[in-house]
Amino acid sequence: MELAKYAVDFTGNVPLALNVLGSSLAGLKKEEWEKRMPMLVNRMARQIDKTLKDSYDRLKEEDKAIFRHIACLFNHKACDYVKRLLEDSKLDVDVGLVTLAERCLIQISQDKIIRMHDLLQEMGRELVRQPCILEPGEREFLLDSKEICDVLVDGAGTNSVLGIFLNLSEMKDTLSISEEAFSGMKNLRFLRICGVLQDDKKIVFQLRGGKYRMWRQLRLLKCWGSSVRCMHLPEGKKHMWRQLRLLEWWGCPMRRMPSNLRNCGKELW
C-alpha cells in the first residue's frame, strides 16, 4: 500500500501519468518495485511530461485554448463561472470541458468544480510562456508579478494579452499604473489584482480617461486588498463596460463607480 500511495503521490493521481509509471513496473515483484521506484522517479519525469504534452497536442485548437485558460486563470473554478466568462469568445466551452475531462486533462467534481492537477497546470502555463520567453507582453496570459510590472511600466503589452493575474504579495516595490500602461492590450479580457504588498508599499491606479479599447473587452475585473489605491474607474461611453460579466472590488477605495456600470448591475454577478 505504501508503494501504491507513493506512486499516486508522484504522479498526482493523473491517469495518464499513472499509466506511464504502471507500464514501467508491470510484471515486477514488490521487492523490485522498492528498488526501482527511486530511480524511475528521476528518469520518468520527462516521459510523463511528454505523455501529457502528447495528449494536449491531439486536442482541437479550441479545446487547447480552453485548457490554457483553465491552467492560467480558472483552475478550481465552477463550470458556470468559466462558461459565463468565456461566452461570446467563440469557444464551445460545454464541449471543451467534456473533451478535457474525457482526456483526463481536468476533473469535474460532483458540485461542478473544475480541477486541474499541478502537473498539468504547470505544463499549461509553460505552453503559454515558452513561445515568448523574452517578450512577456506577447503572451496570452501574464502571471509572474515581476514580468507584469515590467510590461506595465514599459507599456509593452500587446493585442495577444488576454489575461493578467497580479499577485501583490510577490511584489517588493510601490507601483503606479496609468491607463497608458494598458494602451496596447486591446484584447484584455481578464484582470485580477489581489493580495497585500510587503512593507506597507502601495499600488496606485490612475485610470481616468477611458479612451482605450481594452476596457470595452473586459469580462472580469477583480481588485481586492488594502494595498490597492484607485482614483476611480473610467466613465467612458455607454458601451465602455458592455462585455463585463464579473466585478469584484473589495478592500480598496473607489471614489465613484461609473454610471454605466451602475446601470448594468442586473447583468453582473
From TrEMBL:
The keyword Repeat applies. Residues 61-130 form the Disease resistance protein Roq1-like winged-helix domain. InterPro entries: Apaf_helical, Disease_R_plants, P-loop_NTPase, WH_DNA-bd_sf, WHD_ROQ1-like. GO terms for biological process: defense response. Keywords: Repeat. The keyword Transferase does not apply. It comes from the Eukaryota. It holds the Pfam family WHD_ROQ1. This is BnaC04g31900D protein. The gene is BnaC04g31900D.
